[in-house]
Amino acid sequence: MTAEAPPRVAQPGPRTLAWQRRRRSAARFWKQYRTHRAGVFGLAALGLFALIAVTAPLTVGSDVQSVTSAPGDPLESPSAEFPLGTDQFGRNLLGLVVWGARVSLLVGLLAAVLSVAIGALIGITAGHFRGWYATGLMRITDWFLVMPTLVLAIALATVMTRSLGTIILAIGVTTWPTTARLVRAQTLAVESRPYIERAKALGGGHWHIMSRHVLPNVMPLVLAQTTLIISSAILAEATLAFLGLGDPTVVSWGGLLQDAREAGAVSAGKWWYLVPPGVAIAVVALAFTLCGRAVESVLNPKLGVAR
Question: Rounded to the nearest 5 degrees, what angle is found at the Cα of 124, between the Cα atoms of 121 and 128?
Answer without folding.
Answer: 135
